[in-house]
Amino acid sequence: MDDAMADQDPPSSGGDLKDDTLGPNGLVKTSEFIRLIIDALTSPGFNAIATELEKQSRIPLHSPAAKQFLELVKNQEWYKSIDAMKQLQLSDENSVILLLLEQKYLEFLKNEQVPEALNTVREEITPLGLDPRLLHKLASKILKPDPVGEEEDTEVVKKKLQELLPLGVIVPERRLEYLLDDDLDTQRGQCDFHNVQDSDLSLFSYHYCDKRKIPSETLQVLSEHTDEVCS
Predict the structure, then answer these.
(1) pTM score, whole prediction
(2) In this structure, which of 78, 80, 95, 173 has its CB flanked by the most CB atoms within 10 Å?
(3) CA–CA separation, 138 vs 124, rounded Å?
(4) pLDDT tens digit string along 92-107?
């Protein structure tokens, strides 16, 4: 393909892809579908193709504000991530701020910076007006710290953020893969005469087992045996 042609913009139907839908019933939002494909390409390492798809479709995996926010969370830059979060214009910021401050607090404890940890609770977490029991639970970690675990894992933090942030701000990782896997599992469960290996399932066709493949003819009758019969 000629380089000049490769650099041309994709043909336009006259509308914005972000407003289009796909599927026979028009239930699939084009923008969501493309974002899921971009994520699906990124997971196995096809980053260049994912970037090209973003360019051609003009639909990014995440908005610039969300991308910056996630990068700061990944780097455990909690102060900066709180500032970046404000660019997302959330209706409920306190839940997200609490999650980020908790990580900052736990990081101080991990580094044995107890005064800084206490100051985080007193000066930053307490003003959020939380349940006193939660504050007590956080403070108790100073006397009985948890082992380094999932609370300090940025991937776990990201999953928790997905539950707190509005739908679509963050694309759940491998979401397309899980959707397809769930669909195949549903097809398998709804197959009344299922009798094949999972390796025979395919995304290229709807799965069903023909009942004619179920053994239905008597080949031999054993009438005088006195013990178990093994095939």
Answers:
(1) 0.73
(2) 78
(3) 13
(4) 899 999 999 999 998 8
